[in-house]
Amino acid sequence: FYTYNDFIAATKYYPTFESSRSLDVQKRELAAYFANVKQETGTLQYIREINRNNVYCDTSRGIPCPAGTKAYYGRGPLQLTWNYNYDAAGKAFNMNLIQNPDQVAQNGVLSWRSSVWFWMQNSNCHTAITQNQGFGATIRAINGGQECGKGSETQPAQNRINYYKDFCSQLGVSPGGNLGC
User: Fold this and answer.
1) Which end of the chain, N or C, is more open, meaning fewer C-beta atoms within 10 Å of its C-beta?
2) pTM (global) more than 0.90
3) Where are the alpha helices (DSSP H) in 13-154?
4) Residues near 15 by Cβ (< 8 Å), separated by ≥ 6?
5) Closest by alpha carbon to 167, among 127, 138, 131, 124?
6) What is the pLDDT of residues 108-139, one digit of tens each?
7) Which residue windows are coiled coil (predicted)?
8) Is the separation of the CB atoms in 28 and 40 below 8 Å?
9) From residue 73, how far is each of 86, 122, 140 by CA, in Å?
10) Catalytic machinery residues
C-alpha cells in the first residue's frame, strides 16, 4: 500500500516539506517524519489503527460525527485520528472525509498526503524541526497525550527516538538536541 511514488506525489502538494533551510535541517526533517511514520504504522505494515474500537469523536469543536459514519480511528502513515482532523484534511483536499474517513486507507496518495498535511499544517511538526525545537516536539504534537508526561519516556516514545537517531545516522546528520518528550 505504501509506495515511494505515492509518497513523492503527495509531497508535491507541500513544496516546503523537507526543503527549507540547510541540508542538515532537511535531513533531520525527513528522519523525523519517517521515524514517526515507522512507529505509527509498525514499520509500514498497518494502514489502519490496530485498536479500531476508539471512535475519536469530539463534537465540542462544532464538527459532527454523522450517524452511520465509520469511527475516526487512525489511518495512514501518521494515523490521522479524530473527526476534527478528518474534517480539516477533507476541507484542505476539497473532499468529504468526515462522511468517509476510510478514503485515507483506500488511496495511497491520499494516505501519504493526509500525513504530510498533518505534518506541515496541522501539528507544528515541520515548524518544530525547521526552528530547531528538537525531535521531542514532534512526539508531543503527534501523540504527546499518550506518550509524554509520564516521568520518563514511554516505550513508544523511546521507539520514535531510536528510529529518529537511526535515520539521522543513515542520512549522515546529527540528530540535534531535545530528542525526548
Assistant:
1) N
2) yes
3) 23-41, 83-93, 108-117, 125-130, 136-147
4) none
5) 138
6) 999 999 999 999 987 789 999 989 899 999 99
7) none
8) no
9) 10, 17, 19
10) 40
Angle (CA) 85 91 94, round 5°:
135
Burial (CB count within 10 angstroms: exposed 0-12, middle 13-18, buried 19+), residue 66: exposed
**Domain boundaries, given as residue ranges, for the chain:** 4-45+113-171
Return the closest-CA partner of residue 147 out of 157, 132, 137: 157
Kindly state the helix (H) or strand (E) to which residue 10 belongs, with its residue range. Answer: helix 4-11
CATH no. of 4-45+113-171: 1.10.530.10
Grid cell 525527513 is found at 30
Main-chain phi, psi angles of 48, to 5 degrees: -115, 150
- Residue 12's identity, in one-letter code, is K
| 180 CB burial (10 A radius; 0-12, 13-18, 19+) | middle
